């Protein structure tokens, strides 16, 4: 039972985070698109129009998937991939030395770049824990 509760807590935290950031990016779409367009990563800058829609809609869809128990493992895996991608992007930003605004949206955008790295790493760890818990919890339940 403790594993199921922990799965619910992790899923709930990610749902809140993805809904908050996704909806904020959609509400502030013009700003989000502009911030992506000035990225030091030219591929992202050139695709900013598409990414500015796909990323926040994807975050909202991930939140919906995390609500559905049958989709949870897939949602945790997709979330882990997303956070790993965010960490790679943060590494590129920090490596570029360019002072850019955060594209996260809302309160999260007020964090320092260093805080972002730690926050995203913690979220990645939560996703990986969720994957492990779902895999082991439901595998054990299906054996009985």
UniProtKB/TrEMBL annotation:
Membrane-spanning intervals of the chain: 5-23, 43-68, 75-95, 115-134
Q: Which GO BP terms apply?
A: methylamine metabolic process
The superkingdom listed in its UniProt entry is: Bacteria
Where is it localised? Membrane
Q: From the UniProt record, list the coiled-coil ranges.
A: none
Tell me the leader sequence span.
Answer: none
Annotated Gene Ontology cellular components are: membrane
Q: How does it sit in the membrane?
A: Multi-pass membrane protein
What keywords does the record list, in alphabetical order?
Answer: Membrane, Transmembrane, Transmembrane helix
InterPro entries reported for this sequence: Methylamine_util_MauE
Domain (Methylamine utilisation protein MauE) ranges: 4-133
Would you tell me the protein name for this molecule?
Answer: MauE/DoxX family redox-associated membrane protein
